[in-house]
Amino acid sequence: MKNPIINIENLRCGYKSGFHIIDVNFSLPKGLFAGIIGPNGSGKTTLFRGISGDLPLEKGKILFDGKDMTKLSLRERAQKLSIVTQFRETTNLTVEEYVLMGRMPYRKQFQFFDTKEDIEIASHYMNLTNTYRLKTKYMSELSGGEQQMVGIASALSQKPKLLLLDEPTSHLDITHQMQFMNLIQKLNEELSLSVIMIVHDLSLAAEYCDYMLMMKEGKIVNQGEPHSVLTYDQIEDVYNTVVIVKTNPISGKPVVFPVSERMLNKYNNNK
């Protein structure tokens, strides 16, 4: 692959408790919107922590834009990569103060105040995420959906090349989920921002992601475009549950329908 944003080869990392991701290999081109899926405990967040540098690598390598991630300083890494998690923020920072934290990697030594450029960049991304109207409010006063949008504004203020999203829509209602995902898709398309997102909702992932990586027991068991990954047999094998997969008539993307045990039994009894 020519000029990938990230290239991971034979990656192994994990915890002293024993769980590890093993022999992870994938390469993603710049400007791709990729989703990582898999059941709880499959290694999705562990993979993110390995990419971000929170977990030391025991084996393999991660190349970011052609450079070895382990050789980048924390400052360099923060200028290239931003992470947004699912969170309920209780800090007493205002929205503007929180977004300006995204400019920390660019602060010079002994710089104690935000520059005019910092404020302009933060304001730009608050406007882009429709959070400028909230700039004087405290983070603890916001709804979950508003907090996630502010989190994106802060992450974008880092001017990253790659955005990592760790289950950002898990606690949002469908309105805020769609607003959030539409924004990420817009940023991906208009800014050519590379995005890797962990997501539990398979249909939501399929609708928005260009590429998917499916994990099970610390390994990537399948990867490719949504229609090739989200087949009923592969989902049933990885998630150990019965599903039906159909096609969205407008987007052409897969839609996953769960089947309850009661209805499955009724269906089988009527055969």
Average pLDDT metric: 89
Class inferred from helices and paired strands: alpha/beta
In order across it, which strands form the biggest sheet? 6-7-8-3-9-10
The total beta strand count reads 12
The span between the termini is 49 Å
Largest sheet: 6 strands, mixed
Helix content: 25-40%
| Strand composition percent | 25-35%
SSE run: EEEHEEHEHHHEHEHEEHHEEH
Question: What are the low-pLDDT stretches, counting only 5+ consecutive residues below 50?
Answer: none
Number of continuous helical runs: 10
Query: What is Rg?
Result: 20 Å
- Large-scale geometry: globular
Give structural attributes.
271 residues; alpha/beta; 10 helices
Descriptive notes:
This protein is of the alpha/beta class and 271 residues long. The chain has ten helices and twelve strands. The protein has a six-stranded mixed β-sheet, sandwiched between helices. A four-stranded antiparallel β-sheet has the order 2-1-4-5, with helices on one face. A two-stranded antiparallel sheet has the order 11-12. A hairpin with a 5-residue loop joins strand 1 and strand 2. Helix 4 crosses helix 5. The longest helix is centred in the C-terminal third of the chain and has 17 residues. The chain is globular, with a radius of gyration of 20 Å. The mean pLDDT is 89.
Element layout with pairings:
Blueprint: E1 4-14, E2 20-29, E3 33-37, H1 44-52, E4 59-64, E5 67-68, H2 74-80, E6 81-85, H3 95-100, H4 116-128, H5 144-156, E7 162-166, H6 174-190, E8 194-198, H7 202-208, E9 211-216, E10 219-224, H8 226-229, H9 232-239, E11 243-247, E12 254-258, H10 261-269
